[in-house]
Design brief:
- It is built from ten helices and eleven strands.
- By secondary structure, it is of the alpha/beta class.
- It folds into two domains: 140 residues, 3-Layer(aba) Sandwich (D-Maltodextrin-Binding Protein, domain 2); 106 residues, Periplasmic binding protein-like II (D-Maltodextrin-Binding Protein, domain 2, 3-Layer(aba) Sandwich), CATH 3.40.190.
- Helix 1 runs antiparallel to helix 9 and helix 4 packs across helix 10.
- The longest helix has 15 residues.
- It starts with a strand and ends in a 6-residue tail after the last helix.
């Protein structure tokens, strides 16, 4: 029997959920399963592309870029519905534009000439939606004075708190988790704009997995909220349940990527 490897390319807040999910899947499917951690998310994505990781939580932008190649071995499994009223019991999330509470900024447009952190250039929520948003203002370049690649949403938040940059767009599910873990952060920052909603990052499977295993995985994801153990693991990830996913759900990310392609942040 083979070993099923799964991993998350989301923020570090999803690690505990990934480990719990691996244990849950092993019990439900009867397949030895492990969460691959302790390596950078870029390496996890590379291993998925090679088939060494078979199940992955992936940002929507890399998903649509992989899915455009018909011979790429990827299949949607399910998508999470985040915990919180703002998500309207739908598989969506937002990008909150965050500044330090004491700053002078009151709107996104006030940020002209400011310093900006983004998590990384393959991010929909932290990078591409911002470029597309600037296109709506008529900007193709020159809006920010300075930009810095922080490496993660949590690092961007820390840069704001440390006065290294003035603003950033933060995945709201990450921001929810940070404030839940560190309530004082919520008193030190302020949201001046919300961009979205966007389709939530999906869980995907390699089509190198046998079809019956992919089907069993999908059924298990979709049924997690129906038992106590599943609900407890979902709670680790601030998730209410999983629902079915369809490729066309990610057409908004495709459209945003097309707009963003011609926009520079500086």
């Amino acid at each position: 029997m083979y070993l099923l490897n799964l991993a998350t390319c989301m923020a570090e807040s999803t690690e505990s959920f990934c480990h719990g999910l691996a244990q849950y899947l092993e019990i439900r499917l009867g397949i030895p399963t492990q969460c691959v951690a302790e390596i950078p998310w870029q390496e996890r994505e590379r291993l998925f592309d090679q088939g060494a990781i078979q199940v992955l939580w992936l940002c929507g932008l890399p998903y649509v870029r992989k899915a455009q190649f018909k011979d790429f071995a990827i299949e949607l499994l399910a998508v999470p519905i985040p915990l919180g009223a703002r998500y309207r019991a739908e598989p969506i999330y937002f990008s909150d534009v965050v500044v330090k509470r004491k700053s002078r900024f009151r709107s996104f447009y006030d940020l002209r000439g400011s310093s900006w952190a983004y998590n990384e250039p393959m991010s929909h929520s932290g990078f591409n939606v911002v470029r597309a948003y600037l296109a709506g203002f008529g900007y193709s370049q020159g809006f920010f004075r300075e930009i810095v690649e922080s490496g993660s949403h949590t690092a961007s938040i820390e840069m704001i708190l440390d006065d290294q940059v003035e603003a950033s767009a933060i995945d709201t599910t990450v921001l929810d988790w940070v404030i839940d873990q560190r309530p004082e952060v919520g008193t030190q920052i302020r949201v001046i704009e919300t961009i979205g909603p966007s389709p939530i990052p999906p869980w995907v499977a390699s089509t190198q997995l046998p079809g019956h295993v992919r089907s069993a995985l999908r059924r298990t994801f979709l049924g997690m909220h129906e038992d106590d153990e599943g609900r407890a693991i979902l709670a680790r990830g601030r998730i209410t349940r999983f629902v079915a996913a369809h490729d066309t759900d990610y057409d908004p990310i495709r459209r945003i990527a097309d707009v963003a392609a011609s926009v520079s942040l500086v």
